[in-house]
Amino acid sequence: MDLLLHFCEWLPRLPPNLQPFQLLDQLPFTLKDLVITLLSATHPIPEPDFATLRLQHKGPSELPYYGRSPPVYPSPIANGTSNNLWATAYHEAHDLVAQMTVDEMVNLTRGFPGPCVGNTGAVPRLAIPSLCFYDGPSGLRGQEFVSAFPAGIHLAATFDKDLMYRYGRALGDEFRGRGVHVALGPVAGPLGRVARGGRNWEGLSNDPYLAGAAMGAVTRGMTDAGVIATPKHWLLNEQEHRRRWSAADGDAISSNVDDRTLHELYAFPFMDALRAGAGGVMCSYQRANHSYACQNSKLLNGILKTELGFEGFVVSDWDGQMSGVASALAGLDLTMPSAGLFGPHLLRAVHNGSVPLPRLADMATRLLAAHHHRRQHLSYPPLTIYPPSPPSRHPPVDVQSDHALLIRRIATAGTVLVKNLNSTLPLLSPRYLAIYGPSATPMLSPWSNPDRFAGDYTASFNRSTLPGTLITGGGSGGTTPPYISSPFSAIQSRLPPNSILRWDLSPPSAHNPNPTPYPNAETCLVFLNAYASESFDRASLTDAASDALVLSVASWCTRTVVILHTAGIRIVGAWSRHPNVTGIIMAGLPGQEAGTAIADVLFGDVNPSGRLPYTIAREERGYGGTLNSTRGEGYFAESWFDEGLWVDYRAFDRDDPEGEGVEYEFGFGLSYTEFGYGGLEVEVVAGMTEEEFPDPGVAVVQGGHPGLWEVVVRVRCVVGNEGAREGAEVVQLYLGVPGAGEDTPVRQLRGVERVGVLKPGEEAGLVFELTRRDVSVWDVGAQQWRMRRGRYEVYVGASSRDFRLRGGFVVG
Ligand code: BGC
Fold first, then answer.
1. Is the pLDDT of residue 492 over 70?
2. Pairing status of strand 313-316 against strand 280-283
3. Domain named Fibronectin type III-like: which ranges (predicted)?
4. Residue 703: which of 374, 191, 333, 279 has the closest Cα?
5. Which of 131, 161, 476, 589 has its CA 20 to 30 A from that of 351?
6. Which of 184, 246, 452 should be mutated for ligand 1, with most atoms under 8 A from CB?
7. DSSP state, 430?
8. What is the mean pLDDT of the chain?
């Protein structure tokens, strides 16, 4: 304290051209942030001079940037006040931690070698087991007798909250069944800001509301199964390029975003996961506003643990810890997969006072509380995770149950029909089909790495397509399917007697530009795919060889249907308006039931109701500054999110209201039937809109201020099936808040309901419940969600541009 006082007295005397930030290295860490705050007032952070810095620091330093993400200290000590479950868990965890030595606590904050992707230290004398952490968000990676669920982006395309819950529950049952305590998912970071982002498919759409609905439902499902859900990657992990520090390139990219966008887009879906009971959160690799996400006190201590009242633990992304003491004080609770900069370093730091003992106790308590919150300490299935590579003999531990049925259901519900002319689909009584393209049958040899379907990172690096049915993307979020239902076989088995099937499934290439034509074919199905993986961003949203294949088939086949398995956006402008391309299906990443699911839709057993979870522009350049990841120059690479809130349809709505550059808009998808909309009623719930801000007297619980989740407006309408086939309809509600079109996007999704299956002539009423958060904006000055005064526009329809009902309400 003396040192601090001395420093503060001395502060005003510093000449303004001195760079006092460089002196801060001399200060104990705990004083550093306070001093930085004081210094910032009189000495604005100078632009860095890298050449000088390199000399002064014998290497580059993050120091000049430090402070742009405001410091928030100390790290909040959680105590389980959110609800009774957490209270009990904390009571029990406190009891255990009180009996622990410092070494034992330290062992709970780091990873050890073991069977899982991550293994915490055990404390046998207190019967605390090593907790098993395992990937990933759509299935247990690298194991046998487990299911390969559709990827996150495919789930999002269902727009169905019930299926989202059942997905989380089934996934959670499989993790639990194999004794895994902590599931590393679901994913809302990346959200999908960058159209070519390599991991967007792991996430749940680039719209924060849809992603939030899915994050909440999946987390609830996993949590109900008894597993600790770990939403990731917190936060702003929007690109793969330079996501991590490297000796060759320098520091990881810094995602620089303003406070309002951070809240309204990127943190928003995590709120739902926290509210649904997530016990862990994984912090991301890259820097956020110049400070590494796993040592960013604003993100961890500030937003996550204070504003959102998080009771669980923060775990680093694998080897993503960049500092020891600093990360502990900034709110990191657990480093993975090894000791990282904790272990003996943390022990020393606690003994010499650099990390206060209560902080260490909080770190250990948070982990144990999450374990007890799921009651895993009472009984848990034995751990049956086997090293995938090299494969070994082991007893089959089958946790698949009947999940194949659910997988097929989600796979069909997330299939999006975007073009269907001349009643090409469904195929009612096909006599002669021709099938083309590599995505029609599974890859010939996908198991060179048993841990990673379709090859490891090296094999897949910069790959843009897969020579086989694409059911998942690559990297840690990929699945290892027990089998793959082949689209080709599933279609063949559905053909009526005496029909003809011809095929050419060779991957499109310059050597094979014109596959064999079959002039008598009635309908031609062309199966393409677009691959993406962790560790690299996509080079393109299209590929010339696949496009040439479609054009070749369409040159003679008058009913060409293109089916695309895609790990994200695929531009289709090269052939989408070709008169012979009469059908286009976006079949997403459907998981193991790829074949049965597409056959269900093609033959009309299931009426498609999936909707696009992103906008497909006519050309890649339509995405403007968010097409590509930022390359980033120099040691401290930066990515400025200066588009703010205007990502995807929010940007297209502003810049292209007529939709000339939009091929298929966010939320779009066709059906084999027609739906009519009517009966719009908007009810402002009495007494709920008087206060602009949630009651400051009410304590925050996990997920944020409880008032944010109170229903303030109800919107009702009726949807009826006016066509001849039964089907489900995804009804979407978009809201224009006061100020929309000025400082806020024209419309933002604030309600999704999948209605049906409705029989022809059948009607259903539905209710959208808008919460305080749904009708609020983040007020940067007040640091709170604020309900604006004025008129709100309500748009209800079948996509982000197809509105069938309009209304509004006024908040006075
Ligand atoms: C990924 C995480 C994953 C972890 C463990 C990291 O490289 O970014 O998403 O959970 O590895 O496999």
1. yes
2. parallel
3. 729-800
4. 279
5. 131
6. 184
7. -
8. 92
Name, in order, each residue with C-beta under 8 angstroms of 780's C-beta and a sequence gap of 6 or more: 258, 259, 260
Say whether the peptide bond before residue 186 is cis (omega within 30 degrees of 0): yes
**Alpha-carbon gap, residue 229 to 161, rounded angstroms:** 17
* DSSP, residue by residue, 188-240: -SS-S-STT-TTGGGBS-SSHHHHHHHHHHHHHHHHHTT-EE--EEETT---S
Do the beta carbons of residue 241 and residue 143 sit within 8 Å? Answer: no
Whether residue 760 is predicted with pLDDT greater than 90 in this model: the reply is yes
Q: Which atom of ligand 1 is nearest to the CA of 202?
A: 9
Question: What confidence tens digit (pLDDT) does each residue in 421-466 have?
Answer: 999 999 999 999 999 999 999 999 998 888 888 877 777 778 899 9
- Atom 9, ligand 1: residue with shortest CA distance: 476
- 118-119: strand order across its sheet: 118-119, 132-134, 182-183, 228-229
pLDDT of 255-289, one tens digit each? 999 999 999 999 999 999 999 999 999 999 999 99
pTM: 0.92
Which comes out higher in pLDDT, residue 745 or 34?
745
Does 232 sit in the ligand 1 pocket, CB within 6 Å?
Answer: yes
Exactly one of 207, 251, 317, 653 is catalytic; name it.
317
| Ligand 1 contacts CB of residue 199 (under 6 A) | no
DSSP lists the bridge partners of residue 276 as none
The candidate with the shortest Cα–Cα distance to 456, out of 389, 507, 555, 409, is 389
Task: For ligand 1, say whether the CB of 188 is within 6 Å of any of its atoms.
Answer: no
Per-residue pLDDT at 2:
42
Sheet holding 581-586, edge to edge: 416-420, 581-586, 560-566, 523-530, 432-436, 500-504
For residue 757, cis peptide bond before it (omega within 30 degrees of 0): yes
Show the CA angle centred on residue 295, arms to residues 329 and 256, nearest 5°.
140
Percent of the chain with pLDDT over 90: 85
By residue count, the chain amounts to 812
- 320, 299 in Cβ contact below 8 A? no
Ligand 1 centroid distance, CA of 199 (Å): 11
H-assigned helices in 99-207: 102-107, 152-156, 161-177
pLDDT band, residue 28 (cuts 50/70/90): very low
Over 60: is that where the pLDDT of 108 sits? yes
- Give me the mean pLDDT over the 710-727 stretch: 98
Residue bearing tokens 């093609």: 602
Ligand 1 neighbourhood includes 241 CB (under 6 angstroms): no
Active site residue 33: no
**According to the 3-state scheme, what is the secondary structure of 599-668?**
HHHHCCCCCCCCCCCCCEECCHHHHHHHCCCCCCCCCEEEEECCCCCCCCHHHHHHHCCCCCCEEECCCC
Burial 703-740 (b: 16+ CB within 10 A, else e): bbbbbbbeebbebebbbbbebeebbbbbbbbbbbbbeb
**Ligand 1 atom closest to Cα of residue 337:** 5
Question: What is the pLDDT at residue 508?
Answer: 82
Query: What's the burial of 530, exposed, middle or buried (CB within 10 Å: 0-12/13-18/19+)?
Result: buried
Residue 792: enclosing H or E segment and its boundaries? Answer: strand 790-797
Q: Which residues 6+ apart lie within 8 Å of 400 measured at CB?
A: 145, 146, 147, 174, 482
Predicted local confidence at residue 507, as pLDDT: 83
